Structures are given as C-alpha cells and as structure tokens.
C-alpha cells in the first residue's frame, strides 16, 4: 500500500546505523531526518513534526525512554518504534509501558523493520483509495469484503479475509507473525504466543488462494513471516 510521503525521524547515536537506515528508507519514498542525541532529537520532534519516530533507547546524556515519556506527557500525535539492543522481556515491557507503539530488538532484519513502519503509518496517514486492490489475477474489494481469483470468488471466512486484506495492503513486503498478531488478531502482547494459530490460518488461506492455481501469490519467508506478491518473471 502506498502512503502519502511520510516523514520519519531517527534518533540513533550510532551514525553508521543511522546512515544505513536512511539509505534503505529514502528509496522507499520516505522523508528521513536523523539526530544523534536526545536533545537534538527532541528539538526535531517539535520542528519537523514527523509521522514516525525510530528511537534508540541508549543515547548519550539522556535516555531514549526519557524522550518517549516526554512525548507522551505532551500528548504529541507521533508513532514511536523503539530500536534497541536491550531486548529482554522486561525491557520490552518498560518500553511499551512508557508509550512505545512497537519494539524491535537489534539486530533486526530490514524487511521486517520496513513492514512494521508500514503497519504503524497505516494508522496515522491518509492513504489513496484502497477499496479495490489487484495483485495479478487476484482482486480484492475491501468495502464489500469479497475477493476473486481469476474471476472466481474465494469463499473466505471473515478472519481469512482480514488476513488476506492485510497482506494485500502490504503487498511485496514481508509481514511478520508478530505484526499479524498485533494488527489482525489485535493481540497487544506476545506473552501468549499465537504463532500456531496464525500458521493454521495462513495454511487455510493458501489452500483457497493458491492451491487451485499455477501461480502462487502467498509466499513464506523462512524465519521472518509471509509476503503476498506477484512472482517475478
């Protein structure tokens, strides 16, 4: 799904990491700014008014959690994705409890990061009309909640349709099980993993979506998640 040009601010004191993130995000159409300290970052939060903040928690002189708490105290309308090497359950709980919208431990895969960014921006940015989505011979009508493959209607359960629509809105991108749990199943915590439930639903969707057709659209990205895409010739 294509968003109107979004502004992303990265607060990260590792300049090589920040440069790598910028190099990956700008070609995807994002407007990206960086800050290497909490003070500079907080200044840019107010002056740039970004749509999304990528926040490292380990910063010189002032922690990223301090920035996060201040942002929430001020009531700023800003999605925050925490990126940190502090990746224990306790760290995640503290980050999410302090107001983070999502939490990704280092090292991370760039495709998963991009997919999470897309998921967060879906909640904040106006988007073009996506009531009708087409991927190859797959047609999805989001308003009527109907999908067709090669002009044949797919008999989907409500959950299967929600899953298909989410994958279609992120077409070409890799969607993790954690993202599906949060955005499709509305599970805000992963303390009770539902990976098996997700895998069963994906298998059922694949049976209806792909099994009867020679061209397979629903791909499993080993170790990461799933992607709905038209195969490259």
Please characterize this protein's 3D structure:
- The chain is elongated, with a radius of gyration of 19 Å.
- The relative contact order is 0.11.
- It is of the alpha/beta class.
- It starts with 6 loop residues before the first strand and ends in a 5-residue tail after the last strand.
- The longest helix is centred in the last third of the chain and has 15 residues, at 195-209.
- It is built from 8 helices and 12 strands.
- α6 (158-169) crosses α8 (195-209).
- A hairpin with a 2-residue loop joins β6 and β7.
- The protein has a 5-stranded parallel beta sheet with strand order 2-1-3-4-5, with helices on both faces.
- It folds into 2 domains: 7-121, 3-Layer(aba) Sandwich (Rossmann fold); 132-228, Arc Repressor Mutant, subunit A, CATH 1.10.10.
- InterPro entries: CheY-like_superfamily, OmpR/PhoB-type_DNA-bd, Sig_transdc_resp-reg_receiver, WalR-like, WH-like_DNA-bd_sf.
- One of its GO terms (biological process) is regulation of DNA-templated transcription.
- It comes from Terriglobus saanensis (strain ATCC BAA-1853 / DSM 23119 / SP1PR4).
- Residues 130-230 bind DNA.
- How are helices and strands ordered from N to C? EHEHEHEHEHEEEEHEHHEE
- Number of helical stretches of at least 4 residues: 8
Oligomer: single chain
Looking at CATH, which topology of the largest domain would you report? Rossmann fold
Number of distinct beta strands = 12
Keyword list:
single chain; 233 residues; alpha/beta; Rossmann fold; Arc Repressor Mutant, subunit A; 2 domains; four-stranded antiparallel sheet; 8 helices; 21% strand; elongated; DNA-binding; CheY-like_superfamily; WalR-like
């Amino acid at each position: 799904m294509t968003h109107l040009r979004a502004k992303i601010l990265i607060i990260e004191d590792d300049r090589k990491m920040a440069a790598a993130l910028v190099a990956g995000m700008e070609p995807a159409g994002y407007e990206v700014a960086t800050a290497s300290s909490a003070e500079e970052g907080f200044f840019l939060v107010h002056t740039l008014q970004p749509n999304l903040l990528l926040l490292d928690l380990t910063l010189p002189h002032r922690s990223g959690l301090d920035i996060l708490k201040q942002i929430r105290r001020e009531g700023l309308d800003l999605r925050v994705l925490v990126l940190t090497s502090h990746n224990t359950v306790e760290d995640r709980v503290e980050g999410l409890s302090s107001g983070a919208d999502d939490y990704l431990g280092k090292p991370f895969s760039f495709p998963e990061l991009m997919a999470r960014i897309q998921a967060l921006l879906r909640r904040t940015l106006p988007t073009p009309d996506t009531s009708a989505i087409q991927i190859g011979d797959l047609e999805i009508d989001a308003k009527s909640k109907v999908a067709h493959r090669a002009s044949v209607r797919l008999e989907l359960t409500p959950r299967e349709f929600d899953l298909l629509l989410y994958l279609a809105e992120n077409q070409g991108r890799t969607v993790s099980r954690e993202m599906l749990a949060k955005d499709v199943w509305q599970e805000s915590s992963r303390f009770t993993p539902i990976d098996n439930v997700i895998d069963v639903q994906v298998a059922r969707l694949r049976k209806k979506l792909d099994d009867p057709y020679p061209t397979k659209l629903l791909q499993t990205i080993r170790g990461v998640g799933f992607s709905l895409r038209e195969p490259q010739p």
